[in-house]
Amino acid sequence: MKVPNVISTYCPYCRKHTEHKVSTYSPGKRRSLAFGNVKFENKLRGHGGKRAGKKSVKKQGKRQVVVLTCTECNKKQMRVYIKSRTKKKIEVKR
Ligand SMILES: [Zn+2]
Question: What's the distance, CA 64 to chain centroid?
Answer without folding.
Answer: 7
